């Protein structure tokens, strides 16, 4: 049946209307989808906010619970102390009312009085000893009262030797707080008198602060000032000839013989050197070295605090050659410019101060830094972190100046163990120090990525480096470091583990073409997969790289299940022997702990 034109036109118009309606509905659907996506993102953000607030709420609840627990403890403690105080106050009131004679005075109260007085002034204990028979009996039967002993080895009075001996006897076997003071006894200087123009004599000496067992000190002969320097202005203003004033060696020997048997029970030990130098200062350094030699084999298991104060000695001695400091709370500037070795253990170090000291040491050969707290200025830290927003806000006027680079031309050996809490200061140290003649280095860090650029620049500045021990972390950072080690012949991978991850990391980093071209001796603290290691050795032999000649460590043969095959040790040993690699049993002396 044929359709007329009107009907066809009607159908065409209807189709166009439906298409327009379809387009409109599609637009509405897309807008609805966008709104749905926005609501979905908002819902996700709300969920994250709820999770964060829930975690913060839980932290606040835990903190509140800790505070409440502490509050309950303090309330109970306060009640206990209040009862004790009331009891003591009642006893004191009874004593005040009754006016008891001294023989009826409670010994525990008298002991508290003497102990409190001695805590304010140590001489009070001797006052108590001379008060009466009752007081002397209480004071002599309180070992804690005699736990603090101060010995001045520069003192010429023999009666003080007997006082020291009596103090050790009264202390019994209780823990000891011992102060050893060396050098002439200081005296107040008249401000109107100028300081002596001649510097004190120079003395080379070894300073060690390692707790536990004392190490060996370098023996030094006493240094006597020239004849024209042997005159000193004393506090009375009279210039005296002191050329005939020598230390009392016999008295000092008696002091040392008295000190040595009591050192083992030290809980706190303080070494203090004279603050005011004089031409005779060098005459008092021999007893310090002698005491060190006597103490080298003494074990101090109870030692908790060791304080070594160089004082005026560090400022006046001009030829210190070796210093080892542990747990040093602040860095004191040194007058010496003759250091050959400097070791710092777990000490607080200001970056600018230590660099200023190192800049003056033209003979420094060995530098060791173990887990030190290296601090620097806020502006330096801001420039070090490289925050893009910070750099965008900076202008040419307020941008921190470029730090100067210190060149330690004589340094041959460098040991560095990182402190993770002070990684920013350590990165700045590596940025500002260059050692062009460095031959041997030991470097340990748990996060090489944080200081990757700075350490890589430091290694590039040491073109003569041959021996290197380094902690093995991620293969990416190791690969970057290995590309800078063109002169290294011996490498030690620090990091003990019974699994093969650390050894595999080394192989991954060392398999990059062109890395460690001169390496011929290798040591690994952790095992590596035997098959991969043997393939790596063959790859080095077939390439233009230096072939491996010696190896120290262990390889692991893995089964199909990925487990270690304990009965396959001879396989990799025979494989290395066939490749011409010699096996070593001992390391090369690197510290890996």
Distance between the termini: 101 Å
Q: Return Rg in Å.
A: 37 Å
* Strand order across the largest sheet: 3-8-9-11-14-16-17-18-19-21-23
- Residues in helices, as a percent range: 40-55%
Largest sheet: 11 strands, parallel
Estimate the global geometry from the Cα principal axes. flat
Low-confidence stretches: 185-245, 275-284, 311-316, 381-397
Mean of residue pLDDT values: 75
- Strand segment tally: 23
Coiled coil: 8-63
Organism: Dacryopinax primogenitus (strain DJM 731)
Keywords: Coiled coil
Protein name: F-box domain-containing protein
In words, what does this structure look like?
- 42% of the residues lie in helices and 16% in strands.
- By secondary structure, the protein is α/β, with parallel strands linked by helices.
- Among the domains are: 12-98; 321-390 and 401-465; 485-494 and 502-593.
- The protein has an eleven-stranded parallel β-sheet, with helices on one face. Strands 1-2-6-7 form a four-stranded parallel β-sheet. Strands 4-5 form a two-stranded antiparallel ribbon.
- The longest helix has 94 residues, at 5-98.
- It is flat and about 140 Å long.
- The termini are far apart.
- 25% of the residues are buried.
């Amino acid at each position: 049946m044929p359709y007329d034109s009107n009907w066809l036109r009607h159908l065409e118009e209807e189709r166009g209307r439906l298409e327009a309606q379809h387009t409109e509905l599609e637009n509405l659907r897309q807008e609805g989808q966008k709104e749905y996506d926005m609501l979905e993102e908002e819902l996700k953000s709300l969920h994250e906010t709820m999770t964060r607030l829930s975690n913060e709420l839980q932290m606040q609840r835990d903190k509140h619970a800790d505070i409440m627990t502490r509050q309950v403890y303090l309330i109970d403690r306060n009640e206990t102390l209040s009862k004790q105080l009331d009891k003591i106050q009642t006893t004191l009131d009874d004593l005040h009312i009754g006016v008891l004679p001294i023989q009826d005075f409670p010994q525990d109260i008298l002991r508290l009085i003497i102990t409190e007085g001695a805590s304010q002034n140590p001489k009070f204990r001797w006052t108590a000893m001379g008060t009466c028979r009752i007081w002397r009996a209480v004071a002599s039967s309180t070992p804690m009262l005699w736990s603090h002993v101060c010995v001045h080895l520069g003192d010429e009075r023999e009666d003080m030797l007997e006082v020291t001996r009596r103090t050790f006897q009264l202390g019994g076997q209780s823990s000891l707080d011992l102060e050893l003071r060396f050098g002439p006894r200081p005296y107040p200087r008249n401000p109107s008198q100028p300081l002596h123009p001649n510097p004190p004599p120079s003395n080379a000496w070894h300073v060690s602060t390692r707790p536990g067992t004392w190490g060996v000190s370098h023996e030094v002969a006493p240094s006597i000032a020239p004849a024209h320097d042997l005159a000193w202005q004393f506090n009375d203003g009279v210039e005296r000839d002191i050329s005939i004033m020598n230390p009392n060696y016999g008295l000092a020997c008696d002091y040392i013989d008295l000190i040595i048997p009591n050192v083992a029970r030290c809980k706190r030990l303080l070494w203090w050197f004279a603050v005011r130098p004089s031409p005779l200062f060098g005459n008092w350094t021999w007893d310090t070295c002698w005491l060190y030699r006597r103490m080298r084999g003494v074990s101090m298991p109870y030692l908790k605090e060791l304080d070594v104060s160089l004082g005026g000695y560090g400022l006046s001695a001009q030829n210190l050659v070796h210093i080892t400091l542990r747990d040093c709370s602040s860095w004191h500037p040194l007058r010496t410019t003759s250091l050959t070795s400097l070791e710092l253990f777990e000490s607080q170090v200001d970056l600018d101060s230590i660099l200023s000291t190192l800049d003056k040491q033209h003979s420094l050969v060995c530098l060791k830094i173990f887990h030190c707290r290296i601090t620097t200025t806020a502006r330096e830290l801001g420039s070090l972190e490289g925050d893009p927003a910070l750099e965008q806000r900076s202008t040419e006027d307020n941008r921190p100046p470029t730090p100067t680079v210190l060149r330690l031309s004589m340094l041959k050996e460098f040991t560095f163990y990182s402190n993770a809490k002070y990684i920013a200061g350590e990165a700045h140290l590596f940025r500002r120090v260059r050692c062009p003649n460095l031959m041997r280095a030991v470097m340990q860090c748990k996060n090489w990525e944080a200081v990757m650029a700075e350490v890589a620049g430091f290694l590039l500045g040491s073109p003569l480096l041959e021996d290197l021990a380094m902690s093995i972390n991620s293969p990416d950072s190791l690969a970057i470091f290995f590309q800078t080690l063109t002169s290294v012949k011996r490498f030690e991978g620090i990091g003990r583990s019974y699994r093969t991850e650390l050894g595999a990391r080394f192989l991954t980093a060392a398999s990059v073409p062109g890395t460690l071209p001169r390496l011929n001796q290798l040591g690994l603290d952790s095992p590596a997969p035997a098959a991969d290691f043997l393939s790596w050795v063959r790859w080095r032999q077939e390439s233009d790289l230096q072939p491996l000649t010696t190896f120290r460590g262990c390889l692991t043969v893995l089964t199909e299940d990925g487990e270690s095959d304990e009965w396959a040790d001879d396989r990799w040993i025979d494989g290395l022997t066939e490749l011409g690699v010699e096996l070593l049993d001992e390391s090369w002396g690197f510290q890996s702990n």
